[in-house]
Amino acid sequence: MNPFEIITAVLSLSERCYDIAQEVKSFKKSSNLLAERVKLLNEPIQLAKKNLSSSNHDYERFLDALKKLKKCIEDINAFLQKVAEMKNWKKFLQKCDITGNFQDFNVMLDGLVPGLILIMESEKREEFVRKMNKLQDTQETILNDVKQIALDMSEVRETVVRGNEEIKSTLDKILQSLPSKSIVPLDLKEINVRDLQGMEYQPNVQDGTFGELYFAHYRSFGVKVAVKKLYESQDIKTNLKREALILKTLESPFIVKLWGICTEGNDNMIVFEYMENGHLRKFLDKNSQLTDTQRLRMALDSALGLYVIHNQLWLHRNLTSMKYLVDNKLTVKLSDVGLSKTWESARKHSSVPTQAKRYHAPELLKSAKHVYDFQCEIYCFGIVLWEIFTGNEPYEGMSQMEVMDYAKNEKQLPIPDNFGSRGELILKCMRGDRILRPNINAIVDALKAIKLEDCEQKN
Q1: What are 318-345's pLDDT values in tens digits?
Q2: CATH number of the domain at 280-334+355-458, out of 3.40.350.10, 3.90.226.10, 3.90.980.10, 1.10.510.10?
Q3: Nearest Cα to 425, choosing from 319, 314, 323, 296?
Q4: Spatial distance between the Cα atoms of 406 and 403, rounded to a whole number of angstroms
Q5: Is 197 helix (H, G, I), strand (E, B) or coil?
Q6: Can you give the pLDDT at residue 179?
Q7: Burial of 265 (0-12, 13-18, 19+ CB in 10 A)
């Protein structure tokens, strides 16, 4: 096919994608958002239809992205058609795979955008990317779609399983694993404050959280836990319950375990897994002699924590090295996931300074109107990677204003000459052009490749 035939095919496939999305009953919001994103890509395609020329400097790169887009939309259409024709009970059982596919397709489309917008004038590119980001799925959209399937299944359950107790029992267990009508996982534990023995205040331990940190013994499970007691405010209790519920859906070996919450009386406490070595920044300061292998493993752990939440369409929104914690086996886990509104409420009643300004992406510093998104968070993670591999504190000795000017002018942290692939990855994450930053999936793949390369060199 010549370029114009491919363009015609892509435009036709885009229309078909939008039509199929209207047929999807469950996962309707996710389907419509995906179809809208496909439709939005018609803008650069229509422009190419008028102006495409092989003399264009970026012709080959655009054409390659166009071919990949055609294949991607074909796959999206086949997927949406399959979801549209799928029985409710089947969607119900395959909910994780379906939501994962939506995320995969969104990531694919994001990866094609830099090549497709080459045909556009430079001042229009950022506006186009902003429109694409506005159509990105949110965790709330996914949860609402899953909740609707749970409600549908609850209504038909009795007729489906009548007379078959074994099937009914199995289906009940599956239903209990999903959010209820208020999107509440049934395994979130409300902890009685009397079950937390020997509460010991930690006045010298700061983790960037707005409240007080305690260590205690959790009697029910016989383990040591970390307890964050938040300062009282009108919003905290509501936000804490809502966001802690969401956090339970993001459990992973690379995310600090949430044991439960305590909201008795005036108490607003979060009970977390105890991490022996504290937050990552403090650990790096105390352990300057870590080997390259140890640092690489910690970098991969850190990336995998972010991988979990980004692939669930969730943003941390306050990503720093103080939000990663280290256990006694040097496993690094991401903490405070999904608690942005709780921290916002607590911040109003706290004098604890935030370190987040040092991690602000250039686009956030240049425009107050810029929406915090996945590319902004990748910039933050680039700084965390730099900290892990160098052991140093970023922008050490610089004032907050100097740091902001440094980042706003798209200056990057200094990379040692011997860093090789590690340095290249950090620089990619901290690119001034946000469109060119890798997504977390690509970062995990790169770190795995570096780890493999490291092993081969040692062998």
Answers
A1: 899 999 999 999 999 998 886 655 545 4
A2: 1.10.510.10
A3: 296
A4: 5
A5: strand
A6: 42
A7: exposed
